[in-house]
Amino acid sequence: MRVIADRRSVLVEVRKYDGALSGRWTAGRLGQDEHGVWLGTAQGVPVQSDAGGWPNRFPHVMVIPRGQWWIATFCADPGPELYGDICTVPEWNADRTVLHAVDLDLDVVRPRGGTAYSKDEDEFAEHRVRFGYPDHVVARARQTCHWLMAAARRDGHGAEPFASAYRDWLSLFVGPPLLP
């Protein structure tokens, strides 16, 4: 874990494939490690979208991997332990204060103490047709979803940062370490 002393804020902007705003909020840069850049968002931070706005329900940390088609969010209790968004490769602006990604609808959720499952297959199928996802985007999204399901396994065969590495970042952001 490499904590960044400069904790300037980052604007996270996630859009749908048609350009509609799916979510925009501010997060704090926590640091980086071999898994990517880690951001933290406090409970109550306003989230805006084209469908309206709401306060963030749980404090959480996110890892933004390098060159991958996903973003993983790890929530404090009582939120889901893991919420993985399948998206285009996240892109930073030049000074790394704005993060952009395109949400491809598929999600992998691991409830606290539960088993990971895929979510929003129906939305993915609908948007694939409505927004005209190219075949290579469909293939990459499905491949990434299958990989993330396997990586997020709880039975000891899961991969990092989904097994335990996220715990240090979450405790750095919200309090004492979590028990396994």
TrEMBL record:
InterPro entries in UniProt: DUF402, FomD-like_sf
Sequence ranges assigned to domain DUF402 in this UniProt record: 19-156
Pfam name, any one: DUF402
Name used for this protein in its record: DUF402 domain-containing protein
